UniProtKB/TrEMBL annotation:
Transmembrane segments: none annotated. GO terms for cellular component: plasma membrane. Coiled coil: none annotated. Residues 1-26 form the signal peptide. The keyword Signal applies. This is Piriformospora indica-insensitive protein 2. It comes from Ziziphus jujuba. Keywords: Leucine-rich repeat, Repeat, Signal. It holds the Pfam family LRR_8.
């Protein structure tokens, strides 16, 4: 009984202190002006949903997914004491999946000016497929209140969102991740972009950007991803781009860039993905400096008339490469056997639509991880070196059409999953394996020893012995 009374007394005392703490500390709520701005922005995104009825209370306590708040300690103006407040730090719009069910956009979505004036603590702004109707939605010419706080700007697949975006980006002094892809924004990338010194990921792909690449890009020393693909950029790639030594991915494909691929890119020793395809680089051959970029995993130069031969020694130090795109480049000469010898991790190889001749190296038959090879529309000849197992594995992704002098063994020609092989002629001579032996410098092919005929003296001696045995 005494134990029961002791426990009851402790419970009452604990309840007293919890109540006293609750009275002395009240959880901060979102101020009414900021809460009303959230409602109005939600209405501009989707007016068919009764946001105020569904979420009538404090939006920082109960808000739709995608509206995120955080606590701050602010100093009061009266007695310089600190007070806890709460503010909106993330606004995410556009349904992505059941795991991120952000407020869904409607065909009539608009961009409320309050979005740019009411949230001075905002860290992330996200729009996914919100402005897709034929009605144009312009980026307002307003200096946003979140210029010093925004860290992430993500605008994905909003084709009706138009207007120059350079002024907005250049004002975001703390931005770390800017992904603006698949929108209607246009104009030039301003040179002031170099002031965003904290930027680590910069993607402006699939927009309507034009003009030259600004020199200011080379000042983004923390940049790890740069993707300006699928725009209308022209002119040369600045030599100063080599200053981006932290870069892991560089994608400038599908633009109108011209001149020479700058050799300064070899300073990007951490680069793993390089795509310069479908520009206007030309007449300088495949860059030899690629052999010095030891961490390369994928390199795509297709659609540039670089011309020349595929360098034999380019691949000696690039054993980690998994993807190569050298299609439609005006390449001539033969396919070097060193590609099959050194690129043992290769998964994709595209060297179609060139002027390559000679045989397909037998070493290509040893590429155990290969999933797709495209050799179409060249001048290749001779026997196809792929085994039945490898041919079945690639199936339709083994592309050999447009090389009328290529041939295949009868057994491979009948494979059901390799229609490309089925269209090749059957080789007349049976296959005699003659593996190439490499020694010393692995890039140099050892020549087979010539076969010598028996000497005349040996033949006469054998005949003499034979005749003597007959007389005996």
């Amino acid at each position: 009984m005494a134990l029961f009374h002791s426990f009851s007394s402790f419970s009452l005392l604990f309840f007293f202190f919890v109540t006293l703490f609750s009275i002395s500390y009240q959880q901060p709520v979102l101020n009414s002006a900021e809460q009303d701005s959230v409602y109005q922005v939600l209405d501009s995104i989707n007016s068919d949903i009764p946001w105020r009825s569904l979420f009538p209370g404090d939006l920082c306590s109960s808000a739709p997914h995608g509206v995120v708040c955080d606590y701050f300690s602010e100093t009061t103006s009266n007695d310089s004491s600190s007070v806890d407040t709460v503010h909106v730090v993330e606004l995410n719009f556009g349904y992505v999946s059941d795991y991120t069910p952000n407020p869904p956009c409607s065909p009539n979505s608009t961009l409320s000016p309050l979005l740019f004036t009411s949230f001075k603590y905002l860290r992330k702004l996200f729009f996914y497929k919100c402005f897709t109707d034929t009605r144009v939605v312009s980026v307002p010419d307003i200096t946003p209140s979140f210029v010093s706080t925004l860290e992430e700007l993500v605008l994905v697949d909003n084709p009706s969102l138009v207007g120059p975006i350079g002024w907005l980006l250049c004002n975001l002094t703390n931005i770390r991740r800017a992904i603006v892809t698949g929108n209607g924004v246009d104009g030039k990338i301003p040179d002031g972009i170099g002031g965003l010194v904290n930027l680590a990921e910069f993607t402006l792909s699939r927009n309507r950007l034009s003009g030259e690449m600004p020199l200011g890009l080379s000042k983004l020393k923390k940049l790890k991803v740069l993707d300006l693909s699928h725009n209308y950029l022209d002119g040369n790639v600045p030599e100063s781009m080599g200053n981006l030594t932290e870069l892991l991915k560089l994608d400038l494909s599908y633009n109108e860039l011209s001149g020479k691929i700058p050799e300064s890119l070899k300073a990007m020793q951490k680069l793993e993905f390089l795509d310069l395809s479908f520009n206007r680089f030309g007449n300088f051959g495949v860059p030899l400096f690629l052999s010095e970029m030891l961490r390369l995993r994928e390199v795509y130069l297709s659609g540039n008339q670089l011309g020349g031969k595929i360098p034999e020694n380019l691949w000696n130090n690039l054993g980690g490469v998994t993807g190569i795109g050298f299609s439609d480049m005006g390449l001539v000469g033969s396919i070097p056997a060193t590609m099959g010898l050194h690129l043992r991790n290769l998964c994709f190889l595209g060297i179609d639509n060139n002027k390559l001749e000679g045989t397909v190296p037998e070493e290509f038959g040893l590429l155990e991880f290969i999933n797709e090879i495209n050799l179409e529309n060249n001048r290749l000849s001779g026997r196809v070196p792929f085994s039945a197992k490898l041919s079945v594995k690639m199936g339709q992704k083994l592309k050999l059409a447009g090389n009328p002098e290529l041939c295949v063994d009868e057994g491979l020609r009948s494979l059901k999953n390799s229609s490309s092989l089925g269209k090749l002629k059957v080789c007349k001579k049976p296959y005699l394996p003659n593996p190439v032996i490499f020694c010393g410098d692995s890039s140099a092919q050892a020549q087979p020893k010539p076969r010598t005929l028996p000497s005349m003296f040996m033949i006469i001696g054998l005949l003499f012995i034979f005749m003597c045995q007959l007389d005996f």
